[in-house]
Amino acid sequence: xxxxxxTLTSQTWKQIQLFQPPVYRYLDQKWIDEFLTTGxxxxxxxxxxxxxxxxxxxxxxxxxxxxxxxxxxGSHFVSHLSSGISQYIFCTSLxxxxxLKSDFGVDxxxxxxxxxxxxxxxxxxxxNSSGASYGLCNYQDSxxxxxxxxxxxxxxxxxxxxxxxxxxxxxxxxxxxxxxxxQYQNEFRFVWDVNVPYDELPENMIVECKxxxxxxxxx
Length: 219
Hints:
The protein is α+β, with helices and mostly antiparallel strands. Helix content is 22%, strand content 39%.
């Protein structure tokens, strides 16, 4: 079977196209049938992933990282930070395999053949949403983010306190960082930002979005 795929095109002085392969969400068939009929889809916060008892679906270190910054003169700054406190996550894979179905304990999956359009459709269906990100997870031996800086120690510390600056970026390093033991999952992750305080953010949300059905199908 030839897989569906999509492209994004940017017209500068030369054309640039971004190839988007299809991604797969593993679910039991009953939930797929409900989604394809009603557009109802479950998305979860990082707190949900942290609480999973197994290491196939759960990861107690989700959204965290150690930032190690080397400064001029040989000084080092290390900080442990967390992100994803006001985001909903939707995990998919680049591959469709019976092995992953077995690992996740489900019997089927859906194919999202237009990830960008899917991201926008769900974003517009979430109350108090403010933005979104999507992409491949970055797999490493450990949850360390290494960097170098020309700034002073005072300025680097200030960046981390304010969750900003060249070392921190926008926190996406942490949201898409996974340890190598999860690499077999080939995860492609969707993230939606919401303007809801952490202590008021439900662990799960059911989104009703029939628009998203245009970009998905039974795999």
